[in-house]
Protein 1
Amino acid sequence: MNNNKPTLSFWQIWNMCFGFLGIQFGFALQNGNVSRIFQTLGANVDDIPILWVAAPLTGLIVQPIIGYWSDKTWNKLGRRRPFFFYGAILTTLSLFIMPNSPSLWIAAGMLWIMDASINVTMEPFRALVSDNLPKKQRATGYAMQSFFIGVGAVVASALPWMMTNWFDIANTAPAGQIPDSVKFSFYFGAVVLIIAVFWTVFTTKEYSPEELESFHEQEQSDDSSDVQSDVNFNKGAAIFTVLGLVVLGIVTGLSLEKELYLLAGGLISFGVIQFIAGALKAKNATSGGFYQVVNDVFTMPETMKQLAWVQFFSWFSLFAMWIYTTSAVTSFHYGSSDTSSLAYNNGADWVGVLFAAYNGFAAIAALCIPVIVKKVGLKMAHALNLVLGALGLVSFIIIKDPSLLIWPMIGVGFAWASILSLPYAMLSTSVPSKKMGVYMGIFNFFIVIPQLLAASVLGLILRHFFDNQPIYALVLGAVSFVLAAVAVLRVKQQ
């Protein structure tokens, strides 16, 4: 058998990535409308970050588990495709239920379920690119995913606006009720998602474990990186547990904001996880999935450790943008925080258009980024794109006319496309193939952790330093993008 993976055609790569169009429909509808749903159901602006915590926390739990299972799976649907298939069904059902939530806490619970379903569907897609493509085509594969993400999100983000302006569906409703424009957008997105994902499931072939073993490049990657570690789990466990208890004591003793309990709980939980891993290691019970995932966290490739900081600051910015843009634009540019008012809902609809715009620009950027990479290299290209994102976010406090906010979305779009492709391109050659799924799941930790931190501290920062004005969350996001740009220039590629 040939020792190298065959080069795939354009349409084979197209079919393999097409499912991302549907996934992004669900993701964009969630990002663009969940804060609006929460506010409509009675949430205060400063409560929104903690309500959003379900999404990243779910990803933190689900992604490495799904990655590990997908590495070990092989059945009639393949290795990664079973997770696409069943995840799409669950996500579709969640999209139908979410906009019909009768209360705030049911909506928060549905966000948890919906994000878990999206993660089951989404996580193995990154691994599929590395599974099916030779190294020379992986950048193309990730760029194709970014293209579909952009295209899908353009339409999904603008759906409430289109429902109102094209189909005359009401974008207002009595207090405490979700407008029909939002409901019908979620229904339409659910149908698109399941069709797109099923297209990938039934048109894409996967290599069997035996075929993957036969590829020369795979064997090299596996042999060079499958190294046993000597991690002192108990030391790390003690440090994180004590630190978490100290934070918990301070928060309780000084009656600080409730969001900080999340930070304390995260530190303690990570300590407990390490205690369990240490106990399993002492008993030589290291073959199970739990220990393997925890061990892989501490033995990740050096490039992955460096890229972790890039991802951390990048996704902190994105999370700030997703949860605060609606309240920032409606209050700062439209002058209303009354969710039943026409001004608020017009502003919220315009945010949907802005989100559609940055995703549209991201689709264009996905075509431009390979050219930029050839000129200046992966690191400099990513740094430049992140700086463009920073300029885009900081423009929100400078530009007063909401109609002009479309232009900063160019910078945000380039940053978004770059975040979705270039870190994975930099990482792909340093990750062992037989652990591709679990390492992609672990890599997503550095997407989830900054989101949890944002949920813990953003509301607190706005209340104490910025008079609870959500527009400053976007300014903080701009600063974080700049820090990500600095971090990527420090990455040492193998």
Protein 2
Amino acid sequence: MTMNLSRRDFLKLTGLIATSTALASCAPADRLLAPLTNVAWPTLTPADFLALNRLTFGPNAEERARFAQIGLANWIEEQLASESIDDGGCEFRLRNLGTFGMSASDLFDVSDQIFDNVDRLKVPKELRQAALLRQVYSRRQLFEVMAEFWSDHFNISTEKGDCYYLKTVDDREVIRKHALGSFHDLVWASAHSPAMLVYLDNQSNQKGAPNENYARELMELHTLGVEAGYTQQDVMDLARCLTGWTVKEHFWRGQFTFDAKVHDTGTKHVLGVEIHEAGQAEAERVIERLTEHPAAARFISTKLARRFLADEPPAEIVDKAARTFERTHGDIRAVLRVILLDGLPLAQPKYKRPNHFIASALRALNAETDGDDAAQDYLLRMGQIPFLWPTPDGYPDQAQAWQGNLMPRWQFAFALARNEIKGTEIDLPRLMETVNAKTLEESTDQIASLLLGSPLEPTSRDELLIVLRSAGADETESLNIFTAGILSSPAFQWK
């Protein structure tokens, strides 16, 4: 099968290619020591290529081969059993990020070195670096997609107070521990997370002066959704239930604690239920009710379907997923099976968010990257650097939020193709050797198939090559520019 670019795609691509010849640079990137892995890639149907784009951070050669071998349903089951997938290669790449296993107290100590002010930035920097490395190199791709999904859902910015070090613990003990488990356990863990309590100001929630911020977001963003029918009085009384939920500041710093001295002991009413004095257990009782509420089943099912299927997901899939959510008491794996197996045939184009765009390019081209400052800078330019979204709603998941950042995408594409990103390297000639491509025409067909799922229609390909050759590019530069042009084209921006 060949791909026929739309006129818009073709004009965009030829314009980028023509312009790029004037910007050619021969400056070599810093070479990395880690060897590149050569694995040939099989041809997939358009439906299978779309599925892999949704279920991963972009298909790479290894993932394509595995998918072709076992099929969609078996691949999903394999990925849902993420704990059984050997991910030693990815973990090896994280070995030098020393803050991951630390307690909150130890993380604070790392961040509080009076002799080195830069150390305060070490913890969140390593967390961001690890997020990108996992997206690019983890074999547990569906797990990583879900980890990112829940990080948005339970958003915490490392720019807020002590979250700069507490978020590392939250990522480990809340998001990654429960990403494919029980929704109840996930909400429960988040509600007891010091990072969340700091981010949403529950530390200042005390009797006589309640702070409603966390209570409101717990209902509106984390469980029920804004249209679930709860009232302002429900929010106020839930906030009163949450008084005293705070974070230790001295011994065992950064751990959850309940301070009974500042807890409001009066009777509350939340969602029609009378809550009598029970200390910490009051809010925990409400959390049980929130996670079992039919509105939570629909709200979470809708968001998951939006992530995997379409900006406006099919109503019949949302309905079926919500029924499964209720029946299984929020079993995330069970809900995903419905959305993915029943919903993927109905999927509509989704615009790649910046981190998916970058990760998918790196994965497809078998890149070697350290995920450090140079790569993170492009995420920053595009507006999606991990754990820095300032408001509780998390990074947007619909196309209109991201279609204005095409220039940094173009810049990244050409810098990547020419190995101009410090700490990141691709080897296009070696990639072409894996499929025995001997001519520029064969190489461009393979690059298009690798990045878009199928070769370009021959006429489009030949016209693009004419543009390159007329601009005076040699074969090596032609392949680099062609690759960058495909990465920059509208066709690659969608998954």
Protein 3
Amino acid sequence: MKIFCMILCGILSWPLVAGDDVIFKDGFNLTGAQIVCPTATPLAEMTNGFGNVFYTASDAIDEPGVTKYFTVNLSNDEWYFMQAVQDQEVYLLRPVITLYTADGSDMLAQNVDQSFSYSADFNYRAISTGLHCLAVEDYSSFSNGVPQGGNDYGFIVAAVPIFFDDYDGFNLDQEPNNSTASAQTGLSVSGDGFSGNSITDIVGDFTDQNDLDVFQLTTVNLAETLVIDVAPGGTAGYGGSVVPDAVELIAADGISVLAQITPNLDNRSIQLPVNDNTDYFLRTVSPAAPLGSNPFYSVSWRTSEQANQFELDDVGNNTAAGAELAIASQQPSPTFGAIYFIAGNLSGPADVDFWEFDVENGNELVLSCSSSFIGSGVQDATVSVFENPTNSALQTETEVQSTGIIWGKQSQATMPPVDLSLDVNHYLKIEANQFSSVVLGRHYACGVFVIPWLKATHDWHWLSCAEQGKSNAKKPQPILWFLFVINFGFTMRFAIL
């Protein structure tokens, strides 16, 4: 039965409730939490159209730097969807939601909005029955930036028991499913089925250190891109005591591995092109380390229409003369420049992809390119930028699997931006020499941002991750979107209210 696909923003309008405030630094302040949590305001118990109970409140980060607290009763071994989402027309609040024990003495789970979607959520399995504490704050205070807040920083917070039989898109791991032959099938999918957009959440746990969980899924109509996200584990993540040792996408034959990652804090997404109405297998591998007290994991499967311009001529673009002409996703302008999202395949060492794009004197180029970082079998994707392909490259870098390639001035950049000095079309060259014998996918994806000469008046484009929380979110900030939108993907945040 369907129960969600309404964005949480704007669908609830209950009176504001307020808890006491304290600023968390580095995610947790023991003394402050102990003081506030026992006296926090209980979430209101509500009933949805299916007769299922959920708990919610509306409030605001009404003063810079405050944290709002709420209490909610959870039941042992039950699954919950926790969410904080801004409910104002102006997009200011970037919520951080944290779950604590009743007295605030232990942090259990947390999610930080890292995609500028203005929503933070996580799936959580309770390990005790009784009162728990939820905290909501803005990313600015969480990251030790300049605190933000005000009447426009309104939010809705909810704790929703997950009724897997009722809620589309939520699925619970069911054993035995240790192989493609015994894969769990019939998974629930949320999406309209017409645009290519769909989302499937899977939660499960490993029974032992040799456990494999395999799920069979079918891409929806018009799906062209697949993104698989693995939730972070630990108390600074979804609260599970394990993270899968490996996550793999396998073709319909049950053998061919198309993409593979070893999830960690920096690398938790598989991204690749797919065919619509096609079967695939998702396989999660248990870590060899002890599983801990709450060995659950959470994985999301998302499809969309192609967000990247995919190469059309795999042979013709092997030279600059046949370069693919990159089409800007954002219309080039003197103020905001141009953004190009491109993608393709490298079939082998002889396959070289050239892309051509427009620049002007004084432009600056930043980019993000990934291949092995997003699960591809390309092991040493090398990216170069040329004014003229007959001359030396202005800049070149070979991907490291743990980071991908990022050119810019933000703290996570692997190389600085490229200053462009000529009013001529420039070329992006992508090539590789090393390929996995296990992972058969050969895909890559890049985002290229050409920043105009007016960049000197827009210092927001080189802000570090922490500093971005300080910037004025009311003014256009396309670089923020560029830096955090995944190359292939899209962001879907739904509520089951």
Protein 4
Amino acid sequence: MKRYFSVLLLLLTWLTSPAQSSFIVGDYNIRYNNPEDAKKGAAWADRLPHICDMVNYEGWDIFCAQEVLDDQLQDLLKGLDGYDHIGVGRIDGKKAGEYAPILYRKSRMRCISNGNFWLSETPDVVGSKGWDADQRRICTWGLFEDKSTKWQFWVFNLHLDHVGWVARRESAKLVLTRIEEMCDGKPYILTGDFNVDQDDEIYGILVESGKLVDTHDVAKHRMAKNGTINSFKTERYTKSRIDHIFVSPDFTTHGYGILTYHYWAPAKEGEKEYKPHVLSDHYPVEVRLELPRYRAPQDWAQYGNYEKKNSETKKPEVVFMGNSITSNWYRFHPEFFHENNYAGRGISGQVTAQMLARFRSDVIDLKPDKVVILAGTNDIAMNQGYVSIEHIFENIVSMAELAVHNDIEVVLCSVLPADRFSWSWEISSERAKASIKELNDLLRTYAKENDLEYADYYSAMADENLALKKEYQQDAVHPNKAGYLVMEEIIQAILKK
């Protein structure tokens, strides 16, 4: 009996204890591949293997980099063990110009969604340059999930302009705004080469916002005997930290380090005398972060995400219920919602069961005339594990029935086309396309049999391979602004009848 009691006590302790998960984030300006650097003994080909050795050794789960040209990105992906990446070139939104990429260990992290915005007055315009900036500047963002614990967090990575003071100030404000708009109550990390140190006014804008904590200041253990800039000089000392890792206040920072790694090479070609070299003109920053695993299910349906906004919202004509496709819609084109008295209630990463749970607070209690339900993508992508198409369909039907019962007109939407989910690589293209078609067939039939409106985005946005048309996509799943304009035309034709 005593043995069974001990086992039970152990089980109860395990179930009630806040399981923890720690991971490592590295931020590093690797220095762009400048042929002139070879004259200083700092050629990219010489530095590359040592950078890869360092990252592999340190085991960064998230690696945020700056000044990365496309050839350097490919070199890093070849030299690093088991990493994937997100990010685009800042000039054309493809491969031209420097990236601010986020690389991640595939064995540990899953990227759920990702995108970019430019640090300018028109952040969603590809290649736009802002204010008094000398260069185009970009911010890369991603929503990640720890595969072992299933909790999620956001990462933002940028490189502020080195010349324009106004550009740096306004870019800092823009990033804070985007964090507030996008993060849906989830924890977040902001990394980058900010070109301002800890004594600068713009640094103050970030840390005094109440949204960000400098990991340097709150780390339980710190190894930072130098600043982060070295100008390729091994002997240079500075207190200035211009490369930073900020986090939301809910993170615990166990360790913070500025890594002053060197490698040794011949002083001159053919000579036996060796001298030290730094790996870049910056030193990397490394932090060890922890967040209790129980935070994710604490508000599983994320009731709190729109709680404040709901209390301030007067009766909307229409509520748009959905996931990141709906939340991004508001971000890309807020005027569409404001001018028509529409309310957006999308939450990134959500499955239909979560939407159903919050349907009363985020839809019914607002007493709209109509609700537009766009859901199912994340279920098919298995964001919360496997769920059958029938059960996805049943969750959507339950939302529709709740709305009808409360005298709210329903518009059911087709799931958008997608041939892959970057965050769920195990789901084949064939399976993704077949699942979307099956669910859409069920939704279309249900709408017809129950005299509900059906918004067929799929037919207008699918290409010949049943993928999202390239001209309409931000990535394989999420529309760009052109895609949302197509969706607006379709939905407005229904809503304005």
